[in-house]
Amino acid sequence: MEVKDSLNIGELSKGTVVAGAEGINRKISSIEVMEVPEVISWISEGILVMTAFYSIRDEPEKQIEVVQTLINKEAAGIVVKLGRFVDELPEQIIELANQHAFPVIVIPKDISYINVLTPLYERLYEEKNMAADQLKNPFKEFEATEFTSVLDAIDYLSELGNSPVYIEDIEGRILYSSSQFLADKWRKSNLLFSQPIYPSYKQKLEEWVEAFQTKSFTRLMIEGQKERLVLPLVSNKSVFAVVHLLYKKEELFNAVSPKYIKELGNKLSQMILNEQLLHQRERLRDLEVLGSFNDISEFNNQAIVMQFKSEVTNANIHPPNSFLDYSSFYRKKLEKFARQAEGFQTVIFEKKHIYYAVFLGEDGSYQSLVRKMNVVIHEYNDKFPEDSFHISISHPFEDLDLLDEKIRSVTKTMDIGLKIQPEEFVYSYDKLGIYEILFNLTSDSAVLKYTSDVLGSLSGTDEELFKSLQVYLNENGNVSQSATKLFIHRRTMTYRLQKIQELLTMDLDNAEHRFILQFCIKIKELK
């Protein structure tokens, strides 16, 4: 309680600040009545003294001395009852109080001390109880802290409990995870949208959602694992997610009041909903930016389209009646990839649940973008093999009227790459665009007849020889490497190649013949 607060409580509200008004923010820690001048021995910091100056009514110098002592001891202020023993205060008290911003309050003589003191004591008692209760609140500083993102907030909670913290939707998909994460019997992964491994987690989630209708939290105890608080995140009286707050400090978290856990949940709920709204605005802004591109020369003459694909995009999560925009979580992940392509303006967008980005940059930056994304994607996939990303990259273009065409092209490049090179992660049009042409040829009857005539019976009946020819061509005619790939002796490989030449009447040492065979095999594979 501050002095200014006391002026609105009980009979003290009839008082008047006659000096030291700039000090009304001083905190009051205790209140005492003083009718003797010997105050030095019991005055403490933050005390609010009430007096009528009865014992020193005829000694203004001692009255001044009392006020000076209170100032020196950093008291909260003084309340003086005027009109009973003292009709006015010495001018020097007024000057001292104003000089040191020390509040001097006067009250009329007909106000009894008890009517002033009782409500003030009650308020101090409530505040002290609240302060004691706050000592049991491990989330006190969290409540008072402003965070720039939900991830920052749960990292703070993770440090507080010295354990992982994560947020799951009501079907168990992970939405946010602290930087600190350890696999346990509930879940082994903190990858976006990954689900628990706990055998009966679906049943447990249903039980929690039901329990949260009347409870502000529950506790999950799994044998051999850290205890955890599980609390609901709520909007419009509906649970849309749950927070798992693991902890080591049992003495701190076991005694926490449900009131503080509920406040924690309310803050996180509001932060997530605000962040969702922000992401939706960013998505609309990106679409507006995309629609406003008129002249690519504004962006130094080059645009590139990229498509992203992973297990998350394949999941296509769009639960009905959900408060959450799941695409916003994925877009945020893509933004981390896009930001690593320095020198480009990037716009991320979605079409029919497929995610794309347009990169706008300088002429000649295409190869550097391909190299950079190769490094970024491979590093990510090496670290998180269960969430492998694939990207396809269009050829650069300078006319934004070609955007729709490039989107179709990069989509086709992704389809082709996944079909013929699933072990690769980055597909570029300049490497795989030829396959789009080959795909079109697979419906040409003349091409199919030619392929059949060239490969003859080799493609239909002798799988061993056909596979040997494929490997040989893929290894650029290197017999030793081909034998190693097929786990056979070099002499065996040489024998098979001689037999292939006899069957096909083709010279495998002739570059043009090898090209014809490679073409026919590709058509057969794609068909």
Structure description:
- With 527 residues, the protein is an alpha/beta fold.
- It is built from 19 helices and 15 strands.
- The longest helix is centred in the middle third of the chain and has 35 residues.
- The chain folds into four domains: 132 residues, HprK N-terminal domain-like (Udp-n-acetylmuramoylalanyl-d-glutamate--2,6- Diaminopimelate Ligase, Chain: A, domain 1), CATH 3.40.1390; 135 residues, Beta-Lactamase (2-Layer Sandwich), CATH 3.30.450; 139 residues, Reverse transcriptase/Diguanylate cyclase domain (Alpha-Beta Plaits, 2-Layer Sandwich); 85 residues, Orthogonal Bundle (Arc Repressor Mutant, subunit A).
- The model has no long low-confidence stretch (mean pLDDT 87).
